[in-house]
Amino acid sequence: MKSARRKKTIFSAVIVCLLLLFVPLIFSSISDARSNNKKEDSYENQVKIYGEDTITITANHSFHPKQYYKAVDDNYQLIKLNYSKINTSKPGRHSLTLSAKNKQDYDKRKVLIIVEEEKVAPSEKKEDKTHTAAASQKEATIAPVETPDPPEVAEHTTSSSETEQTPVEPPVQQEQLNNEQEIQPVVPEETQTEVTAPQTPSLQPNQISFHGQFLPYVNAGQGSGQGVINGSAIAATWGGNPTQSGMDNQNTHFIGHNPGIFSPLLSLGGGDAITVTDNAGNATTYIVNGLIQVDDSGIDIASGIDNWDQITSAGGGERITLQTCLSDTVNLIVYAQA
């Protein structure tokens, strides 16, 4: 009896010791798991505003912050973008404040918007300057004609001896030379004013811009897109809607060579901002939300999934698809959503 009781006592003591040992470990693991979940939740819900730090536009350009900047979370879902008001109708440098937030995170940026005066066409300036120079030269050349004095010449022609002793022509020629010397500097002075200061690069119609690169393109479509990029250093539309627009809620598929116009695509990563202008110069900003490598049939090299429709169809909302070759059989595909 005594041995049985001792065994029960020892067994109970062992159970209690084990409980005292493992219970703290269990609670600590639970708390660690909760803290990790909180960290993951906060990370997954981070907010970031994408777009260039400096943008240059002209005074007559229709500017809206949402054309150039997007706020997204880690799943590349759009978040409401708040922005300060600036007057872009007057030339100058304007500070634009952007902000965005969700329940877990907040992001704020200050960017610079440079508004330049609209430049007058060079041909008009040249015509005005040419007219001014011609008019002043004409006036200057007419003036010496009035310098000879006919009565004075008539008095000196009374006798041949007086005519030989008093020459009339040299003073007139000398005065004309002096007048011509005064006229000559007028043209170089006008020519020097034609030199203009270098302009700051800015977005032009039909351009794809990211990481400080400005890549021109043409709206070509499947019928002539390949021929366009083969014939010149330029990108072209191919699949989707062949005419790029940031307002049609459709996909436009762009193609370009690497090495060549689309070599900068290799520097793109998830979350990067791409700004595209249409024929009228209206800009739309897209956020990169996917990069894959496919063969010439659109099959994903890694997963074997067919991406042909995703690449070339017009559906899927306002988005763009950029394509360039990595080798003879492999292509890089960049997906970006507005």
UniProtKB/TrEMBL annotation:
Keywords: Hydrolase. The keyword tRNA processing does not apply. SUPFAM superfamilies: Sortase. InterPro entries: Ig-like_fold (IPR013783), Sortase (IPR005754), Sortase_dom-sf (IPR023365), Sortase_F (IPR042001). Residues 120-131 have a biased composition (Basic and acidic residues). Residues 157-177 have a biased composition (Low complexity). One of its GO terms (molecular function) is hydrolase activity. Residues 120-177 are annotated as: Disordered. It holds the Pfam family Sortase. The keyword Magnesium does not apply. This is Sortase. The lineage of its organism: Bacteria, Bacillati, Bacillota, Bacilli, Lactobacillales.
